[in-house]
Each structure stands twice: as C-alpha cells, then as structure tokens.
What does this fold into?
Amino acid sequence: MSDYDHLSPTMKTVLDFISRSTLIIYALIAVLLIIIALLTFFDAVYLILTIFSHENLIQGIVEILYVLLLTIIVVEVLETVTSYFRTGRILVRPILIAGLTAMVRKVLIINVEEMHITESIAIIGIIGVLIAGIFVLWKTEM
It folds into this structure.
C-alpha cells in the first residue's frame, strides 16, 4: 500500500507534477553549480599562473586560497544536489563541510585587528558547532 493511495487522482497528479518539477530544478541547479565550480577553478589556475606579477606575493596567495575555498564550497553544495539524485534525501554532511569551509574562508579575509571580540567568539563558536556536527555525523556513519 502506497502513502498516496488515500489521495484523489487530481491530488496524485499535482504531487507527481511537483515531484518532477523539483527534480528538474535540482538538475538545473546542478548544471549551474558545475559551471560555477569550473569558473572558480579556472580563476584559481589563472591566479596561480600570474602570482609572480602580483605586487604582494602573500596577498596573491591569500587570493588563490580564497578562490580555491570558494570552489570547494561550490563542489560540496553540488555533492549535496547529486546525493539527492542518488538517494532521494538531502545529506547534511556536505552542507556542514561547505559551512566549515566558508568560515575558514571568512577567517582568511578578515583583518584580526579590526575584528571585535564578539565577532571572534561568534566565529569560533560557529566553527566549533560545525566541527561537532561533522564529527557526530561521522561517528553515526561508522
């Protein structure tokens, strides 16, 4: 017996349309994420090739890391979308990894001298929660 047996034929048709629409939207999102991931990757390659023409080598390296971390974030979100196609569920672990990567990326760009103590505590707290979430998920998957 299906979960939808009690529904009217019209409602079944509406639910089927919504389900198909969701899959199409996820597929379009996946295509856009692939394009964004490729663009950010090639931007990082370009930055690496032009690193020695940069005025400040350290600043150039930070820019490369910034773009590479953005690429990792996009790939993790893409992994979430593709895992939805494989399993029919949204996995939380790639989202937590993308969040952790975003926080590391944020730490790279902020000027520590200009940061308030409350902002530092908030960033440390967010990173701690994300690491704890990843650890808990990792333990439950074993």
The chain has a mean pLDDT of 86. The first helix runs from residue 9 to 49. The CA atoms of residues 62 and 108 lie 7 Å apart. The helical segments are 9-49, 57-87, 93-109, 117-141.
